[in-house]
Amino acid sequence: MSHFRPLSTLALALATLTISSFASDWPQFRGPDSTGTAADAKIPDQPKIDWSAPLPGRGLSSPIVVAGKVFVTCASGPKQERLHLICFNAADGARIWEREFQATGRTMTQGKNSVAACTPCSDGRRIFAIWSSNDMASFDLDGNLLWVRGLTVDYPNASNSLGMASSPIVIGETVVTMIENDSESYALGLDANTGRNMWKLERPKAANWTSPVPWRADAKSPPVALLQSTKGLLAVDATSGSRLWEFAQAASTTSSSVVASGVIYAPGNGVTALSPNANNAPPAELWRSKQINPNTISPLVLDGRLFSINGAGVVVSADTKTGNPQWKLRLAGPFSGSPVGAGTRLLAVNEKGLAQVVDITAPSGAVIGTLQLPLSGEKRDLVLCTPALEGGHIFVRSDSALWRLGE
Amino acid sequence: MRFILTRMKHFPAILLFASLANLHGALTDSLNTLAAVGREGAGNEAAGAAWKDVVKAGPSGLPALLAETGKGSAVADNWLRLAGDVIVDDALRAKQPLPLAEVEAFIADTTHAAAARQLAFDLLQEADRARADALQPSLIQDPVQELRRGAVQRVIDSAKTQTGDGAKACYLRALDAVRDEDQTKFVTSELRKLGVPVDLPRHFGFLMKWNVIGPFDNTDRKGFDAVFPPEKEIRLDAAYDGKGQQVKWAPFESADEYGKLDFNKPLGMQKEVTAYAVTTFDSPVERDAELRLGGKNAWKVWLNGDLLFGRDEYHRGQQMDQYKLKCRLKKGENTILVKCCQNEQKENWTVEWEFQLRMCDSAGTAILSAKADTK
């Protein structure tokens, strides 16, 4: 079943080094290692708006923060056929550069969704951005184009009429992206330097909006990519695309897994905690809890506890060792973006732009701070993204603006 | 000796000329490299370096860049577009002049590729919004659908400020030019309020008259790949074994003004079934065309027996012009066959078993069959 191929020493070193080059970066969807948290991040108890910047188009992708710059994708035009990547100065919101190009794939999405749904990722030197049209491009931090692909041009039946939303990750010199849908469904490992295929893996023919997640057996091991689908979880060697191990029980196609201390918390009919084994044997199931239902929201682990938000906007805090819920706290919903956390604070921003800070040390959790973002009434503006954290700042975007929040 | 001295006198000019020629040659090579980018990123390695060279050439390279656009794939065009975008951006920051007269002349020449003219207009907009605005009204009958939109919107905006015959004339002018669905819907609605009838199927070129046959089986979604008799022969007087019954072709005309052919009407609401619709289209000349399809069921389309495209996605959404299938019409009668599969889903949003199909050119302008009663 498993065909493990050891990575070369160089690839291993690169893989270990280039998850993120700067300690405070938030380089991809749900931050470093896709965990929704960062060691040096801090969420202000009473967030205030530091600055805001207008955006040229719609989007629900998350901002990412790399080397003091914030990168955001948008889509504009009557059919959202114009694809934008904008770079802002994280300190003051000044626009540093913007690149715009044309969608070559289909741009149809469900009304609330957007062509700019996938969050870009970075290895600290380069940005790798993809849109729902399956157009993918890489730029250096100064906005120089490194490569561009049109994955629907290459694979004409790869699209989803509701919109694609999976966000790529970069492991070493490989960009891993899931182009999973009802028809031509696959995952790709792209050479980060050229954008060319290193591997292409056929995937279940089913719409899938989850994102790949990096997982490593221990601190010395290179990360592997976890691909989630209706068929379960598949661990893939990022360099070769080799299948390492599989957990063949249906998983969510909307809420992505989270990894903490080597344990995988996989959404799908509740949450299942998995402990991968040595030698790429299938992982051991630690527990399964149907009392935690992340719905479309991705969970996170904070302060040794698992947090998720269900479809009713209720935060559930659960014991990571048993899956047993400890407390539940109703927030003002609805939510499309996932929560993020730092230290003892969890942050959730609802669709109406209400940022809510939760103290997870309170006996039943407590909302200790809120901030209503000034959404544009004219455009029926919504906040559908997952926030980004950097140092003591929060970055969040709507269809029309990007904000930095701070103390 | 004099000859040598004369030569030496012109030496700097010769050097400059040679240098410019080399630069021009290098730019041409770099542009060719970008235009040559192929499938699955073939050529990306060379294109990365070429892109930097094109950007370095600056504003003087823009006309050549535009001329190269549209010669390769849509992905190659993005390499070129992103170079043009950066050239204009850098020039604006450096307050460097741009060859806007040449760009404007390029837009006016409709023999250039659609992608190139669209890029030229975008760059003009980025560089000098007022100049682009002044040019825009002239694009109202442009062969590029995207370039028409702004000009049409101006006419719509003008109509909104008028009443009675003035508004009617304005909206009729807009209707003559409009190709996008959202703008067409608005113009149609306003004209109808003013008592002007609008024939939308004719405006868009929807194919309304069909012969349909079904149901064939689609259990476990296997019908999409299965080859049923209509894929082997079109005989309107034939009868075949269908799903649990014998099936025959029967005429069916869509009553929907967006051309939707709803199989639930002639065949009844069924699940896990496949049906076909066939029609003929008479073209007075051999020509390029686009068949534009919208549908939320799995489908395949054949033109004169050749499969144009097929897609096995169910109930993810439907939109007019969802799929644009480039094709070549032959002179005379063309046969269009559509396969449409319904799956097993039982939710109330999975009832639809339909498609809409229109014949148009690349600007979205309807191409009408020479025989109005074609079916």
Given helix and strand content, the structural type of chain B is: alpha+beta
Report the CATH C-level class of the largest domain in chain B. Answer: Mainly Beta
Spatial separation of the terminal alpha carbons of chain B: 86 Å
CATH architecture descriptor name of chain A: 7 Propeller
Greatest interface and its participating residue counts: A-B, 39 and 40 residues
Q: Average pLDDT across residues of chain B?
A: 94
Largest sheet of chain A: 4 strands, antiparallel
How many individual domains of chain B? 3
What this model shows, in words?
The complex is a heterodimer of chains A (407) and B (375). Chain A contains 2 helices and 32 strands. Chain A has helices spanning 9-17, 151-154, and strands spanning 48-54, 64-66, 69-76, 82-89, 95-102, 121-122, 126-130, 135-140, 145-150, 169-171, 174-179, 186-191, 197-202, 213-215, 224-229, 232-236, 243-247, 258-260, 263-267, 271-275, 284-289, 300-302, 305-309, 314-319, 325-330, 340-342, 345-349, 354-359, 366-372, 388-390, 393-397, 401-406. Chain A is globular. The termini of chain A are far apart. Mean pLDDT of chain A is 93; it is low at 1-20. Chain B is built from 13 helices and 12 strands. Chain B has helices spanning 2-9, 11-35, 44-57, 62-68, 74-93, 100-108, 114-127, 129-135, 145-160, 164-177, 181-193, 200-204, 264-267; strands at residues 209-217, 239-241, 246-248, 250-253, 261-262, 273-283, 287-295, 298-303, 306-311, 323-329, 332-342, 354-360. In chain B, the strands form 3 sheets. A 6-stranded antiparallel β-sheet of chain B has the order 4-1-6-11-8-9, with no helix packed on it. In chain B, strands 5-12-7-10 form a 4-stranded antiparallel β-sheet. Chain B is globular, with a radius of gyration of 27 Å.
